[in-house]
Amino acid sequence: MPLAPQRHSGNQCKLSKEMSKLDKRPILAITMGDGAGVGPEIIIKALADSAIYEACRPLVVGDKKRLEQAKEIVGEKVTIRPVSTVNQAVFQAGQVDCLDLDLLPADLPFGKVSPVAGNAAFRYLEKAIEMANRKEISGVVTAPLNKEALHKGGHNYPGHTEILAQLTGTRDYAMMLTAPKLRVIHATTHIGLIDAIEKLTSEREYIVIKLAVETLRRAGFANPRIVVCGINPHAGENGLFGRGEEEQILVPAIERAKSQGWDVTGPLPADTVFYRAVRGDFDMVVAQYHDQGHAPIKVLDLESGVNITVGLPFIRTSVDHGTAFDIAGKGIASENSLKEAIRQAVDLAPRSD
Asked: Is 219:183 a contact under the CB 8 Å cutoff?
């Protein structure tokens, strides 16, 4: 159960610092993402909810000017507090602490691809990772970035996950998506379908199953039930479809996982396995490629879906939607996915000492 927030007035700084040592709410860095997208707006909307502060201590890593603009757009009456270190943050409802990197021009247009915004989105994440590596924060929650802007800004990564892996030196990691009643972990993600099939190996499949088991155990599942999707229609139908990928790649990994005492089922046909998972038969689905896992999550609940990177030395969660340039700057973007990402980060993150 979340701890209640500590309330301090401006003339109680010394007391605030002393009390913060006893505060068990995790400190979460919230990266602003692409400033031309909906990230600034959904951050202000989410942090205007005092319940967020009852569960965690959020620190936005971004640009104060952009958050001020977003505040006016969405009409929330919060104060933006620029800070240069984690220790300067007060973590009080109504006051949004911002580690201000001051990278965006005041006249940056909403809804347009910008190399400046793409570079800034990378720098926000880079800063958050530095703080996480130094254990100044308990986890990272990311607002969306735009891949085209990221590339034009000089950072040639497929997305957040790959940046996080490289900057933390993590080799074994995976993307996990959650929605109400469904959790999906991916063996491959942001590559073409033909490339994804070619990239799959029994070793990779086993690693992803292992990450699924470890993640669920940390979340409180004593004996997680994992199910593995087939690659081909009907999971290959005993060799009728495909070129034996299930037997050559998936079955050896599943048998290896079972030898560890883990509850692993499959490979099963993907056209029915998600229904069974939602029904409650399984705790996590292993999807083999991007759309196999993403589509069911987004059909279930696009606005409340959460993206979690597992295998990192710290927890990272994210909204499961993009920068939404078509509605950016209009104040109508939903903050539900971001609030759910924060909640899940709270559930998975270690508490500070």
From this structure: no
